[in-house]
Write a structure and sequence with these properties.
Layout (H helix, E strand, L loop, with lengths): L5 H9 L6 E3 L6 H13 L4 E3 L12 H4 L8 E3 L16 H13 L5 E2 L7 H11 L14 E4 L3 E4 L8 E6 L4 H8 L3 H13 L4 E5 L7 H13 L2 H4 L3 E4 L3 H8 L7 E5 L5 H13 L3 E5 L1 E2 L2 E2 L3 H18 L7 E4 L13
Parallel strand pairs: 1-2, 2-3, 3-4, 7-8, 8-9, 9-10, 10-11, 11-14
Antiparallel strand pairs: 5-6, 12-13
Helix pairs in contact: 4-5, 6-7, 7-8, 8-10
Length: 340
């Protein structure tokens, strides 16, 4: 799924006014399919294609390929069978049409068509086989912060405490910092794995260290995380005080991540620009209670900055309210600092 992020960015740059769809080859894991749907939803895909890149001719296969309740229309346009030894497709139009009709009869699709090997005759047969069938009803899903790694994770009204693993942070873990500075990224993966095994629901990754090239270290580590399904099954929180490091991470994170963080510290213009980029990368955001005057240091300032940030994000940046997470800078009482 990490490849999902690169192509849409190029497509939007070349044709921003054209609706974007997304497709993927079949994966057997229902959780992974749901995770992919979250990724595409974050990318504001106009539709998702359930079956364009694989051979799905087995009877009854529709229930295993269509992802669970995506909020977007679902399209189905498979190949005309598998290619033969010459790279050509031999499946007859009526056979392809019957495969598509299986999906349509079950009201699982909204858009039908054909991919590799299909001809005008195939399309005509598909139209004839499905014209009288009702499309899938796109569900009205209640708003929630829906994240994903390889598997989906939602923060909603039924959520309890959300456990963010913060040991993959060079400013908060001496062991992780040492491993990263030594270039021992493989062993550093064990730090991430241990957190997932111990119940972390989101994995925070931070490379802000003066002796470290964070612009290289962040994507290198995240690419390694992506290669480990037992780690990358949970969402990533890409964490940095530098926007360029956050963006380097966003370019290689699979699923729907969280950005930690953005704020009004550099003014409204930079705040809106970063929020819009987070939206384009399909990420939720942590918003810190900072503005150009500094960190919020009392209740009134915290409320004022968070309210102002929310209005700007929703009304000016077009950011989904459910994907906004506030960090109001409520410090630990036990620090001994009077203001805390």
């Amino acid at each position: 799924m990490n490849r999902v992020h690169a192509r849409p960015e190029a497509d939007r740059a070349s044709a921003p006014e054209v609706p974007m769809g997304g497709n993927a080859a079949r994966t057997a894991e229902s959780g992974w399919r749901a995770g992919l749907m979250r990724t595409l939803a974050g990318w504001m895909a106009a539709c998702v294609d359930a079956c364009s890149q694989w051979r799905m001719g087995e009877p009854g296969m529709s229930s295993t390929i269509v992802p669970p309740s995506p909020a977007q229309p679902v399209s189905a346009h498979p190949n005309a069978g598998l290619p033969n030894e010459f790279g050509e497709y031999d499946e007859l139009p009526d056979d392809t049409a019957e495969i598509i009709a299986e999906f349509a009869r079950a009201h699982l699709v909204n858009i039908v068509g054909g991919c590799c090997g299909t001809t005008p005759e195939h399309i005509s047969a598909i139209v004839a086989a499905t014209a009288a069938m009702a499309p899938r009803a796109v569900p009205d899903i209640p708003p929630a912060c829906r994240l994903s790694g390889l598997e989906p994770f939602a923060i909603n009204s039924e959520s309890l405490f959300v456990n963010v693993g913060e040991r993959c942070n060079v400013t908060g873990s001496a062991r992780f910092k040492r491993l990263i500075l030594e270039g021992d990224f493989d062993t550093a993966l064990d730090v991430a794995r241990e957190q997932v095994e111990n119940g972390a629901q989101i994995l925070d990754v931070n490379m802000d260290e003066g002796m470290l090239d964070a612009g290289s270290a962040m994507p290198e580590f995240l690419n390694l995380v992506a290669s480990e399904p037992d780690i990358s099954r949970i969402p990533i929180m890409v964490d940095s005080s530098k926007w360029e490091i956050i963006e380097a991470g966003l370019k290689c994170i699979q699923g729907k991540p969280v950005v930690n963080s953005i704020s009004l510290k550099e003014g409204e213009t930079a705040f809106i620009e970063q929020a819009r980029l987070c939206r384009r990368y399909g990420a939720a955001v942590v918003v810190m209670a900072f503005d150009t005057e500094g960190q919020a240091d009392n209740l009134a300032r915290r409320i004022d900055i968070c309210k102002r940030s929310y209005r700007i994000l929703v009304e000016q940046a077009g950011f989904p309210p459910e994907d906004i997470i506030f960090d109001a800078n409520v410090f630990a009482v036990a620090t001994g600092i009077e203001e805390h």
